[in-house]
Every structure is written in C-alpha cells, then in structure tokens.
Amino acid sequence: MEQLLQQLINGISLGSIYALIALGYTMVYGIINLINFAHGDIYMIGAYVGFALTTFLGLGFFPSLLISMLVCSILGMIIEKVAYKPIRNSTRIAALITAISVSLFLEYTMVYFVKPDTRTFPEVLQNKILTLFNGKIIIDLKNIYIILITVLLMAGLQYVVHKTKVGKAMRAVSLDKDAAELMGVDVNKTISYTFAIGSSLAGAAGVLVGVYYNTINPLMGVVPGLKAFVAAVLGGIGIIPGAVFGGFFLGMTETLVSAYGGSVFKDAVAFSILIIVLLIKPNGLLGKTIKEKV
Amino acid sequence: MKKNIISFSILTIIYFLIKILLDIGIIDSYLQLNIFLIGINIILAVGLNLITGFTGQFSLGHAAFMSIGAYTSAVFTAKLGQPFIVSILVSGVIAAFAGILIGIPTLRLKGDYLAIATLGFGEIVRIIALNIDYIGGAIGFNDIPQYTNWTWIFMITVATVFLIKHFINSYHGRACIAIREDEIAAEAMGINTTFYKVLAFAIGAFFAGVAGSLYANYFYFIKPDSFGFMKSIDILVIVVFGGMGSIEGSILGAILLSIISLFLQGIPELRMVVYSVVLFAIMVYKPAGLLGKGEFKLWKKGAKRNVSIESK
Fold it and tell me: Is the pLDDT of residue A294 over 70?
C-alpha cells in the first residue's frame, strides 16, 4: 500500500511533465491539424535555456523558468512563421515530413552547438525530503514543486482559453477557420498565439525535467515528445482536458509498470495502450465521434 | 516487346558493368556499401510506395517489418544454418504475416491516426527485440554469415520493382489506387477495401522483410536500434522525395538521397542539419516529390499521363 502511494506520487510528477508537453501538441493539432513533431525539441531547448541561465548567469529557479518559457514561446512563433506557414495548404504527408525536418534541424543544430554530451543541471531547488506516515512515504520536495507549477500553469491556460479574447479566437479558429475569418478573427495572429502558448508550456516542462532528473542532452526531447504525443492522442487530440488526463494517465501507468517489474517494457506498454485506445475509440478517451460525411 | 528488350539489355549492362568494376576493384568497399544500400533502399521504398503512395495508407512503421525480416534471416542463417534463399523467403513471409496481423485491426484507422498506430507498432517491435536474449537483445546479433553480394542485391531489386509494377497495373493494383482516390466511392463500387488495404500492407511488408534479410546478411551485425523510428522516416522520405505513387520516383529518390548523404559524409557534424534543410526545401517547393504521380516514360512519346486528383 505504501509502495503504491509512493509510486503514485512519482507517477503524478512524471505525468504532469507529459501533460505540459501534451497540451502544446493538442493545441497545435486542434488549430491547424498538424502533428508538430518539433514540439519535443522545443522542450529540449527550454531545458537548455534553463541550464544556461542557472549555470552561467546564476539566476534562481523561478526567473529562469519564466525566461525559458518566454524564449520558447518566441521560438515557437518563429518556427510557425518560417516552417509551417508555407505548407499550411499542402498535403498531410508533406506537412508531417516538414514537421519532422524541423525537429531534426533543432536537434542537430543543438548537437552542433552544445555538443552531444549529457550535462548536469545545477541544483536550483533545495534538496529537501518530506517523510509521511512514520517514514513510510518519502516525498522529494521537487515532486511538490513540479506538481504545483504544473497545476498553476494549467489553471492559467484554462483562464486564457476560456476567459480572454485570444482564447475565444483560438476556440473559434479550431472550430471553423474560414467562418472565424469571416467573423473578423485574425487567423494568422491566433495561430501564432497558439504556438507561443503551447511552446511556453513545453519550455516550462523542459526546465522542470532538468531540475527533476538533473541531466539534459540535445536528444532528450525525442522520447518524451513521442510519449506526450501518445498522451495527447489517448485523451483525444485537440481536446485540452484530454491532454491533461492523457498525460497523468500515461505517467502513472509508466511508473506503476516499472515499479512492479516491467521497467524494460514500459515504453512498449505505453504504445500498446495507445494502439488499443485508437482501435476502440479512435478519437481518444474523451473525444467525440464525428460521423464521416460522404 | 521492343520496350522490354531495351529495358532488359540496359539492366544486363548495368549488372555486368558494376560486377566487373567490383571484381577488378575499381569500386572500393565504401562505394560498394553505398551501392548495396541503394539497392536495399529501393526495395524498401518501392514496398512502402505501394502502401502509402498507391493505396494511400499512411505508415510510419515500415522499419519494423525490415527488422522482423532481418532478425528472421539472422536466426535462419546463423543459428539454424539454412541456405540464404530459404531465409530470404522465410523472412519475407514472416514479415508479410506480421503485416497482415497488424494490418487487419489498424487499417480501420485513417490518416494521422493510422500513422500514429503504425509508429507505436514499430516502437513495440523494437522494444520486444531489445528484450529477447536469444537474438542478442540490446547488444545486437553478431556473426551473421555474409551471403549478400551484388548478384543477390541486383536480382532482388529488379524482381521487386518488376513485381510491384505489374501488381499496380493489374486489376488488384487499380483497386488499390481507387481506394487512395476515394475510399467511400471505391467501396460503393464494390471494392473490398479492407482486403485490398491489407493486401497492399502485406506485400509492402514482404519486401521490407526481404530487404531486412539482405541487410542482415550483408552487415553480419544487427541491433534493434538500427530499425527505429528514424529508419521508418528515412524510407518515407525516399518515397515522398521521389514522388508518392511513382515507382521510378522511388528508385530515383533512393539513388539521389544516398548520393546526398554520401557527400554529406565530408561534414559529419553538420550532416543532419543540412539533411533537414534539404528535406524542408523539398517539402516547401516540391511537395509532390520529384516525379509527382507521373510515371517516367523514356521511350513512349505522347503517352497518356496518369491524371489524378491530388488527395489531401
């Protein structure tokens, strides 16, 4: 029982990182129907920005988190303008390959500049351990930080999407781009904002992962990128609560599978769940089935 | 008839030219490696083109079939001591069987969702291979006998292109193209869409398995990571680069991309960066690929071009 609780806490913190990345995937897919393969690499760059700020400039945790989010949101907007805007009207497969090429570009440009070695992220949060239930459950304070920051960011996102004009425009564009344009919504601007918000969440996730695992490397975005994408699809791609649900679900499944002896198969389990969900409910667990028109 | 004689003589000339150059040592081992890889890539790309280009099913897990073929061939030649031809055929059949097995449930999905499911399937195959000790696990499979030579590569590449070209021009191939153009209309016309999708998937997987077999018995060392997500992307890039739905395009794509990466070997640190920029430029300026859907006609003046609606 204690072990289960312990693992659940680890699962929630891993899940919140997946959820943060998955939110960006889902928002971009919802608005321009593009699987943004470069999203995992934006997360990697977020981690490196955080690393540079804390190591070379000696900034604290919160300032570096904010600056890293800002840098990532600018990067996200640049990627959208330079790479995705020209292919907005081309075929699905062309769009997908463009996204993959952007992802390779970010990865290997980083490899060129920062060298492929793994680096150690500095200890920016004090390493404090809380013990509960007479020492049966040990919680690293980092877990609490990660979960709290994730919840705060998600609440912020919820506010932006539901209460602000930008959020209203985003929802309108994702529902029907042409109709939104006719109603006076600036579609290009809205897409830019979506990329900015999604990328800033990925940047935050990058810094949190750096703090949590203490190591970063230029190819660190590939696997969590794929996992977050799985999370987004699990919950129903294009649906914001779906991404959060999928992220936590995946994080917890993964920690539980590794805790109970299947650590080598944890990625296989994640993908098997994905395939099963897709077969039973192709639009994700929280998605609505849309009838196809002839 | 005349056309067949011309193509047959051209192929014979290519075969003997490279064979002689290899035998007297003008082509060094590095160049030989690249020529062999071009052959393997053509087999893979033509197979994937049948699935993605002609039938319109978006697969991101082609490397998984190649890995199944490679491991089967490694087990058959190194552990069971079977002759090469047997292991090539068995590899193809087992890969095709895997294709049917994964195709029947997943081909109900469409577009992006199918891509995701096949991607997940590819990762599952890789992780399973990583954890089976009999085939070497993460360390890899060593000491596979090196049976693959120029004759094998050449014969199988030509046979693959020939078979797939004839398949596409047959009744069944046209059914596949109909599914790509409009699945609902094809079904309304009485085409059993599930059957043809699975058929295309199985044929593509068969040739991927054969390519994997050639690969394993050329490099005498394979490891699960050689057949990951990136390998599937590489094959897809060849298909898209050459033109979806164009066999000649896939051949041209395999040759050109190998040459590009041959030149990029000179700048190893920037190789992938340049590769990604090239890829991006192709997608933006020539999204239909080098040859598009048009077939490359060398000797038929004024031949009818394949006119088809660009499906989104």
Answer: no
- The alpha-carbon gap from A117 to the nearest alpha carbon of chain B, in Å, equals 14
Per-position DSSP letters for B139-199, written without gaps between them = G-B--------HHHHHHHHHHHHHHHHHHHHSHHHHHHHHHHH-HHHHHHTT--HHHHHHH
Best interface-test mutation with B: which of A100, A272, A283 has the largest number of B CBs within 10 A? A100
- Residue A284 pLDDT class (50, 70, 90 cuts): confident
What six digits make up the tokens of A143? 């877990």
Contact A138, A129 (CB under 8 A): yes
pLDDT, position B294: 52
Report d(CA B82, CA A106) in Å as an integer. Answer: 46
Q: What is the C-alpha separation between A19 and A232, in angstroms, rounded?
A: 8
Which stretches of chain A sit within 8 Å of chain B by CB? 33, 35, 83, 86-87, 90-94, 96-98, 100-102, 104-105, 107-109, 111-112, 222, 226, 229-230, 233, 264-265, 267-268, 271-272, 274-275, 278-279, 282, 292, 294
CA distance B42 to chain A (A): 19
Nearest to A229 by CA among A25, A3, A6: A25
Q: Smallest Cα–Cα separation from B279: which of B240, B227, B230? A: B240
Euclidean distance between CA atoms A196 and B278, whole angstroms? 26
Residue B300: pLDDT band with limits 50, 70, 90: very low
Highest mean pLDDT among A2-16, A85-99, A157-171: A157-171
Q: At what angle do helices B171-181 and B193-219 cross, to 10 degrees?
A: 110
Look up residue B243 and give its two tokens. Answer: 């033109």
> What's the whole-model pTM score?
0.84
Q: What is the DSSP string of B8-28?
A: HHHHHHHHHHHHHHHHTTSS-
Give burial (CB, 10 Å; 0-12/13-18/19+) of A148.
Answer: exposed
Tell me: the pLDDT tens digits for A170-200? Answer: 999 988 888 998 998 999 999 999 999 999 9
In whole angstroms, give the CA distance from residue B301 to residue A80.
44
pLDDT (average), residues A13-41 = 89
Share of chain A above pLDDT 90, in %: 31
Q: What is the pLDDT of residue A89?
A: 81
